[in-house]
Every structure is written in structure tokens, then in C-alpha cells.
UniProtKB/TrEMBL annotation:
<feature type="transmembrane region" description="Helical">
    <location>
        <begin position="461"/>
        <end position="479"/>
    </location>
</feature>
<feature type="transmembrane region" description="Helical">
    <location>
        <begin position="295"/>
        <end position="313"/>
    </location>
</feature>
<feature type="transmembrane region" description="Helical">
    <location>
        <begin position="62"/>
        <end position="82"/>
    </location>
</feature>
<feature type="transmembrane region" description="Helical">
    <location>
        <begin position="102"/>
        <end position="124"/>
    </location>
</feature>
<feature type="transmembrane region" description="Helical">
    <location>
        <begin position="432"/>
        <end position="449"/>
    </location>
</feature>
<feature type="transmembrane region" description="Helical">
    <location>
        <begin position="176"/>
        <end position="194"/>
    </location>
</feature>
<protein>
    <recommendedName>
        <fullName>Glycosyltransferase RgtA/B/C/D-like domain-containing protein</fullName>
    </recommendedName>
</protein>
<feature type="transmembrane region" description="Helical">
    <location>
        <begin position="485"/>
        <end position="509"/>
    </location>
</feature>
<keyword id="KW-0472">Membrane</keyword>
<feature type="transmembrane region" description="Helical">
    <location>
        <begin position="227"/>
        <end position="248"/>
    </location>
</feature>
<feature type="transmembrane region" description="Helical">
    <location>
        <begin position="37"/>
        <end position="56"/>
    </location>
</feature>
<feature type="transmembrane region" description="Helical">
    <location>
        <begin position="407"/>
        <end position="426"/>
    </location>
</feature>
<feature type="transmembrane region" description="Helical">
    <location>
        <begin position="6"/>
        <end position="25"/>
    </location>
</feature>
<feature type="transmembrane region" description="Helical">
    <location>
        <begin position="200"/>
        <end position="220"/>
    </location>
</feature>
<keyword id="KW-0812">Transmembrane</keyword>
<feature type="transmembrane region" description="Helical">
    <location>
        <begin position="320"/>
        <end position="353"/>
    </location>
</feature>
<keyword id="KW-1133">Transmembrane helix</keyword>
């Protein structure tokens, strides 16, 4: 695991700041849960405060230090005024923690924490790393290799200037309609001295550990059993459908274990994501946690918010609902799908409570949704409206012409088959909570919320978490019946996790994909030193192009495979880009119209846009040359 002292200091300070917030909130949590909540909340709020201050005072080290100082000062003031209460509660928590250790009540928690630490400590360093030749590689999944080109561009975008720009880094003239706060955090860490690798990896690693702790106590709070909580986490992280069936078809002609391992090592097939067989319920680790950085920050925060809501409803404490609403109002810039999911679930939880007094119900709804309306709505309007896309009706998500039942049976496997018996054996409270979360699955099977149909999985994953708790409860109950029941569970369990296990094994065996070459890094360093931070570049839309990804300089049009998922209509821009590269009579006028400062002519520009190098060499000054790549300066 890469180590960065600046990043270490940030998360330590965030933890202290956040834990103080948790103690001030006075929610009934045990010490380890307060610590996890504190680090999570502290990281989120310090990142957002730094972003807001940077908008007004510039994105500089001084601004970040100012935020840290003000946060420290505020914490110190609250600690001074509430010192007796905080010290008393802290002593009680530490005493309780010691008692539980000596009583052996924390053995299972320590086990899952150590396993999570070792697992993610071995996984995250493979996600994004420098090889021995100073090339940057990603882990062997197309999701990370594809998405992290954009994430690097967003990080570099914030770093390119002390002035925060909300113009889209990949489409000049368009607002930055993306949940970018996780990428801003990485930019913040780099601003205070962390290297790019550490700044990209460490937040994901830390939030993954926090996710396990928060998930554990979320599942425990609902199920009341440690064994169910641990099993639910395993099922959630490794949940998959019947895709493994195609693995056995793929290896039927292979001979010996070594050939099977070599097949997994070199194959690009992910058995939870096979478009050919209409399998799209992708593994959480491969497709959500690792590639989608917004998810790495937004999902643990989302589970934290839902935990606080469950506590609030159980204790009938509207102050906790208000606090949950305030925390949820940070989600528009972190993970919008989590905000949508949480709003639907919390509304259902409040409405379906046994509360006859309509005024009480309204007060609860207002306590949670009021802060979101005041603090969150303007963020959504600022970033995502107006939009070229509107939600549309589409039954059964990505089933296409396939029967909905057979589609979901193949995608979810036993997780679909076991719902009815698991629901029948579930306690009343679990049934109620599960039904509230099921509204997400129903909505996502009727409405497509974003241009990319697949993105509905980011909403359904919250339902799937409750599904795994429901099934974990069922499996534990059956296991405790008799010896034959244990054999049955032993036979069932592999079918629940084998597809995702194959994908995870592939990640460890695969050597990875090169994202940026040593020459890309060299080119980027030259551009950062010589080209103005506000320069506009004409490039190809190669997803890992070094200009947007490593320099943060504005480009006319980035990877089209991302743009349409953001609801950007790039048709006319694409036509103009091709015309400019062609080097015809309209080229100069279009370059002037788009205020282009530099044009890159490299292999991707030549192969994808038929770039006319002769035209640019004849008419413009050569700014940079490296092997097959040249950059021409359009303006003096």
C-alpha cells in the first residue's frame, strides 16, 4: 500500500474532527462505530469545506490550511464548552470497549476488520500503480481502465489552476455536471503534497475499510446477530448470479488446473457482466467500488445516513432525522444515486411506520427532507439542470426483449430464488425494512433515471444489500436446525458467490492494463510547465489521452463513450472536430471560433480523425514533438 504523509495527516485530522462531531450529536454508538462514522464524516465535511473555500479564495495550500485551522478552532471551542460530557462519554466508551475485548465479544469484529484490512490492502495497490518502467497501470478490469481515465482528468482539472472551474473538463462550454467530490479530495491531497498514485488509491482504501465497519453495524442493527451481519457482508461483496455456468462451458476443453488458471489470468471475460448472454448484474467490487470513485465515497456515507435514520425512527428522535438530512444534503456533489436511493427509502420508512398522527409523520418528513430541500436542491439545479435527458419508462431494466423473470433469474440466481422463503422466515422488523428498500428495485425496473441504462444498478445496489441481509438471516436459521440443514447450506453457498469469486480471482491473476505510458507522463509534464492553465486543446477523444487526464487542460471533446452518459449531445461538436483535423478551408475559422490554443497530432488523432499533419505543419508553430506525437501552437 503506497504511503503518503500528507494524506495520512489529512485522514487523522478528519478522524479527530469527525469523532468530535459524532460525540456532539450524542447518538448511541459504540466506540468502533463512532470512530468509523467520525473518519467518514470528517473526511466528507473537510473536503466539502475545502471546496467551498477554494471557490471563493482559490484552491491553494493556504486555503486548505485555513479550512483545517477553522475546523480545529471550531472543534476546540465545542470541546471546551462540552468537555465534561465528551470526556465522560469517551471514558465510558473506552471502558466498555475494554470489557467487550476481555469478554471476547469483539472477536468476530476484529476478525472481519483484519480480513478487510488485509484484503483491501492487497487489492487497492493493484488498482492504480507505477510499473518498473514508470508506466501507469490499472488493475485488470475494463471498468477501472476505462473510468479512471476520466477520474484522472477530473483530478487534473482541479489541479491545473488555483481558480476552481466548473466547466466540464471534457467538453468546453458545458458545465461540470458530475459528482466530482471524490476526485476533488484526490486533488486536495495532491495539493498538500501527496503523489498521484497515493492520492488516488488511499481514499479508496480507507473508505473501503470504513464501508466494512459501517456495513457490519448496519446489518447487525437490523438482524441483531453478528453471524448474520458477517455473512451479509460476504454475500453483498461477492453476490452474483448464474454467470459461472458459462465459465464451465469456457473451460470444458482445457486440461489441468494450470490451464484453467492461465485462462482466468488472460481472459477478459467477467462472469457477472456478459453482454452476449444478457448478464448485467455486475460484481460490486469489479464494477462499482473500484472503478466508480464516487461510489467509494458515496456508498459508505449513504449506509451511515440510513443507519442514523433507523436509530432516529427507533428512538423517535427528530433531531437525528434532521442531522441525517443535513448529512444527506452533501450527496449531490458526492454520489447522486445514493441521494435518490436514500430519499426513496427514508420516505418509505417514515410513511409505513405505525404512526396514525399525520402531524407527527409530517414532522418526521420535514426533519429529514427539509435540510435536503434547502441545502441540496440548489446543488442539483446548479450541476445537473438544464439537461438534455429526462427519465424514461423501461420495464425490467436491461432485459431488452427477454422475459423479465428469466432475465433476473440469470442475473441474480439464488438471490432471486431465495427471496420468498427468506422473507417468510424473517422477523417482522426485517420484513418491514426490506419492503421499504424493495421500492428501489421496483422503481429501477420501471424508470431509467440516466442516459446509460446500466446506471440504475447504483440505485438497486441498496436494495441488494437488504436482500443479502434477508438471505443471510435465512441461511443462518436453516444452518442452526440440524446436520442435514448444514449440508444443504454448504451445497448452496458456492452458487451464491462463485460468479463474483471468479471475477475477483481474475483481478488478482491478471497483470493489468497500461493506462498511461512513460512518454504520456513526460508529455504532460512539458505541457503543464509551458502551456497556460486556461489553454484549450484540440485532441482526439481517446479515453486515456494525456492532455486532459494528466495536465488538466481544457479540451474540445473528450471520450464520446462518457459524454452521452452525462446527457451531452456532442453530434455537432464531433462534426466540427473532424473538420478542424481535416485541415480544409473551414479549419482556421473553427479553430478561432472555439478559441483553440493548441492542436495535438498523434496516433489516435490520425487513426480516428484522419488528422492532416501536413496542414498544421505548414500553417502553425511546432510546440512539442515526441516520437509520433506533435503539438502545434495555434495562437502566438
Amino acid at each position: 500500500m503506497p504511503f503518503s504523509f500528507p494524506a495520512f495527516i489529512f485522514f487523522i485530522f478528519s478522524g479527530i474532527f469527525g469523532v468530535i462531531l459524532v460525540y456532539l450529536l450524542r447518538v448511541e454508538l459504540i466506540l468502533e462505530e463512532k470512530t468509523a462514522w467520525g473518519i467518514m464524516l470528517g473526511s466528507v465535511f473537510l473536503t466539502i469545506f475545502s471546496f467551498i473555500f477554494s471557490l471563493f479564495f482559490g484552491f491553494t495550500k493556504i486555503t486548505i490550511l485555513l479550512v483545517f485551522f477553522l475546523s480545529f478552532l471550531t472543534s476546540a471551542i465545542f470541546c471546551f464548552f462540552y468537555r465534561k460530557r465528551i470526556i465522560s462519554e469517551l471514558k465510558d466508551d473506552i471502558g466498555n470497549f475494554r470489557e467487550r475485548i476481555f469478554a471476547g465479544k469483539l472477536n468476530l469484529f476484529f476478525l472481519i476488520f483484519i480480513v478487510a484490512f488485509l484484503f483491501f490492502g492487497s487489492l487497492w495497490p493493484k488498482v492504480f500503480y507505477l510499473d518498473n518502467n514508470q508506466n501507469i497501470y490499472t488493475i485488470g478490469t475494463a471498468g477501472v481502465w476505462g473510468d479512471w481515465g476520466a477520474h484522472n482528468a477530473y483530478v487534473s482539472h482541479f489541479l491545473s489552476s488555483d481558480k476552481i472551474s466548473l466547466e466540464h473538463p471534457l467538453f468546453v462550454g458545458r458545465k461540470f455536471s458530475y459528482t466530482f467530490m471524490m476526485d476533488f479530495l484526490s486533488a486536495l491531497l495532491m495539493k498538500i503534497g501527496a503523489d498521484r498514485i497515493s492520492a488516488m488509491i488511499l481514499p479508496g482504501f480507507i473508505f473501503s475499510i470504513l464501508l466494512i465497519v459501517i456495513l457490519y453495524y448496519f446489518a447487525f442493527r437490523i438482524s441483531k446477530k453478528e453471524s448474520i451481519a458477517i455473512l451479509a457482508i460476504i454475500l453483498y461483496l461477492l453476490g452474483g448470479g448464474f454467470g459461472f455456468n458459462y465459465f464451465f462451458q469456457d473451460i470444458k476443453n482445457l486440461q489441468g488446473f494450470s490451464e484453467i488458471i492461465n485462462f482466468l489470468k488472460n481472459s477478459r471475460i467477467e462472469y457477472t457482466n456478459i453482454d452476449k448472454y444478457n448478464i448485467h448484474w455486475t460484481a460490486f467490487l469489479n464494477a462499482l467500488l473500484l472503478p466508480q470513485r464516487s461510489m467509494a465515497m458515496g456508498f459508505p456515507l449513504g449506509i451511515l445516513i440510513l443507519s442514523l435514520v433507523l436509530i432516529a425512527l427507533d428512538k423517535k428522535n427528530n433531531k437525528f432525522l434532521l442531522a441525517a438530512g443535513i448529512i444527506a444534503s452533501t450527496l449531490p456533489t458526492i454520489h447522486l444515486h445514493s441521494l435518490i436511493s436514500i430519499c426513496v427509502v427514508v420516505f418509505s420508512l417514515i410513511i409505513f411506520q405505525k404512526e396514525k398522527n399525520k402531524k407527527t409523520v409530517f414532522t418526521k418528513l420535514l426533519s429529514f427532507f427539509g435540510p435536503i430541500a434547502v441545502l441540496g436542491t440548489w446543488q442539483v439545479l446548479m450541476l445537473f439542470f438544464p439537461s438534455n435527458y429526462h427519465p424514461r419508462i423501461l420495464l425490467f431494466w436491461m432485459a431488452k426483449k427477454e422475459n423479465g423473470l428469466s432475465f433476473w433469474l440469470r442475473n441474480l440466481g439464488l438471490y432471486l430464488i431465495l427471496i420468498l422463503p427468506a422473507f417468510f422466515l424473517a422477523p417482522k422488523n426485517l420484513k418491514k425494512i426490506y419492503l421499504c428498500f424493495s421500492t428501489l428495485f421496483i422503481l429501477a425496473n420501471i424508470i431509467i433515471f440516466q442516459p446509460h441504462d446500466y446506471d440504475n444498478i447504483k440505485i438497486m445496489t441498496y436494495w441488494f444489500l437488504l436482500n443479502t441481509i434477508l438471505i443471510a438471516n435465512f441461511l443462518v436459521k436453516i444452518w442452526n436446525k440440524n446436520f442435514l440443514a448444514k449440508i444443504l447450506i454448504f451445497l448452496i453457498f458456492p452458487f451464491l458467490i462463485f460468479s463474483s469469486f471468479l471475477d475477483l480471482l481474475h483481478l488478482y491473476l491478471h497483470s493489468g492494463y497500461q493506462l498511461f505510458s512513460k512518454d504520456d507522463i513526460k508529455l504532460a509534464e512539458f505541457v503543464k510547465k509551458k502551456a497556460p492553465s486556461n489553454a484549450i486543446f484540440l485532441t482526439s477523444d481517446q479515453h486515456n489521452h494525456p492532455i486532459p487526464a494528466l495536465t488538466g487542460r481544457q479540451i474540445l471533446m473528450g471520450y464520446r463513450g462518457w459524454l452521452w452518459t452525462y446527457g451531452i449531445d456532442y453530434g455537432s461538436r464531433e462534426k466540427d472536430v473532424r473538420t478542424m483535423f481535416y485541415g480544409g478551408k473551414d479549419t482556421k475559422n473553427l479553430l478561432k471560433q472555439y478559441r483553440v490554443d493548441y492542436v495535438v497530432i498523434g496516433p489516435s488523432e490520425k487513426s480516428n480523425y484522419s488528422a492532416n499533419e501536413t496542414f498544421f505543419a505548414k500553417n502553425y508553430l511546432l510546440f512539442y514533438q515526441q516520437d509520433q506525437t506533435k503539438i502545434y501552437q495555434i495562437k502566438n
